[in-house]
Amino acid sequence: MGQSEPDVGRRLRVLREKRGWSLRELADRCGLSFNAISRIERGASSPTVATLHLLAMAFDQPITVFFEDAHEQATVLVRHNRRLSSSADGITMESLGIGLRDQQLEPFLVILEPCAGNGEDTIAHTGEEFVHCLEGQISYQVNGETYQLDAGDSLLFDATQPHSFYNPGAVVARLIMVFEVSESERLIGQRHMEV
Predict the structure, then answer these.
(1) Which residue among 4, 36, 47, 74 sits deepest, i.e. has the most Cβ atoms within 10 Å of its Cβ?
(2) Contact 144, 168 (CB under 8 A)
């Protein structure tokens, strides 16, 4: 009861039709191809987090708009093989849960190839950030101080401090990242992939 997997394609089509936009008009507004949007709407393609971000910006809505329905989710189940995923420059981020009514947390599984990360390019955002290293090593720099995390180590900090991370090891690192979400600053996870 209360658990369902979101139909992102159907929700996208409803939003587009409510605006009176054609597929081509939405493609022009978000920078995606007509065919890519059509495949998502038909359920023939699963969009990445980055793709959903582009679509959400075109509608001037938070990304969670694609996961809402008439009943608004009070419980969201994410199957391990149905996670939204985005990859760039040796960083893969898989969403562990999105679409909850009034969601305040964004949890991700992050996979870092050796030497991958955002290095010296620090970011800062509202809220708090939690990191738990599952395997490998990760080096986090927060407000000029470096924290070396090994498997089993955790870090919690005020995310308004400038911070960055990278994998200093020779093996892949896997970690859980959880961001506190505010209405004014969505998709914080995506910003962590910008290098």
Answers:
(1) 47
(2) no
